[in-house]
Design goal:
- The protein is of the alpha+beta class and 495 residues long.
- The chain contains twelve helices and 29 strands.
Length: 495
Amino acid sequence: MTADVVIAGGGPNGLMLACELALAGVRPIVLERLPERSQAPKANGIVGQVVRLLDQRGLYRRFLGVTEPPRPIPMFLFGALPLDLAGIEGNTMYAMGVKQARLEELFEERARELGVEIRRGRELTAFTQDEEGMTLELDGGEQLRTRYLVGCDGAHSTVRKQAGIGFPGVNSAAVTSRAAHVVLPTATIRMDRAELDLPGVGTMGLYAWHRTERGAYALLPMSSEVLTISSVEWGGDDPGEEVEMTLGELRESLARVVGADIPMAAPPGPGPHLLRRQSGRNTRVADRFRAGRVLLAGDAAHVHAAIGAPGLNLGLQDAANLGWKLAATVRGTAPPGLIDSYERERHLAAERVTMHSKAQLALMSPGPEVTALREVFGELLQDKSARSRISALMSGADVAYPTAANAHPLTGRFVPDLELEPVSLATLMRTGRPLLLDLAGGPLRADTWGDRIDVVTAKCVAPPADALLIRPDGYVAWAGTPDDSLDEAVRTWFG
């Protein structure tokens, strides 16, 4: 048996890629080394424009059990500085609260509905490439043939290492973060005011990072009693990974950061409860995202600080970008160079995220110089245009893929949230197919481009162009008045 595509890693990015491939008519095999889904506490939600992409696949409302489309959020943070987004025209910051274990469960349900084969408890150990495909070696001695292999197997990616792909970057060794689920016996949590009252300490804000001259901390309610407490410190003694993290260690760290001792205890019940220390901050981007028949996505391709929660926004959009391109390559309908555009586009996006995550970490570090820098930066954020640019940076909306110099301003950018009649843009995008959207009443002949593109005429409240050619990943491939440039764009992207 030869599979068209094998995905190493059954986390959110690998499962999203599997769904995208299946929508495009390719049935991948997902290899996941864990026999059962991990319940370890990880991410608590998704932030950024990928939330709109998930809505375009019919997953946002399904995953959250809601009927309304996503709305931009009015407030966020940049480097523990408040980012007021209320009233920002074109605000692209969206969020959805879902724990990673639940997110993986929901993605797996969707992947199985689409016919994806998921093999749990199977780990890729080695592979070789030849002219016809690849031979994968699995634990236990099993072999598997495939045409393409995608590494979605995390920061320590076996696929990346065995493909000989470099992982350059920096390590901020002086940073130590600690986090745990705790109960604060003497505290009063006021959810209505997003505050916590602590006798002898005072009022502390919830849901946000707070910076002091000695470090940073965050308090995130998990229930009416249990909180996730996180601390970040620069310098000091690193106990090393061989020393097990304890609540006492977190309490001492928080006391140094806050300047007051805060009694805490482990939550009741069996858990699993978060108890984690991370020493150092790796910021790395793979020097290439493809080596022959091997491709990388998600943390296998890039790692960065979690400040601002950009990880899933970046990784899931990797999967959406790669899915339709790889499927077209497998089916033999891809125009020349299509699969190579994946690295060109997503490497650019990864560089943007690693840049702003390092900047945010620097703004949270201790020292009077940083305090002065934060004061200057805070004044700049009083300007609405500055807040708009920062929100676009964090959401990923400022990423513009390379395009022709005379292209429409929307070309290469994620499609705006158009108000369409009689059907919404999100509904039109659910098939995962290319979409030619006629906003001027055409007529555009649907048979001109064969069966590879859906041609739809719709009314738009404020049409940005007469027509838009939208890629399956939500990015605009062409916009303007239909002419020869539209035919050229169709050939460039869809053959």
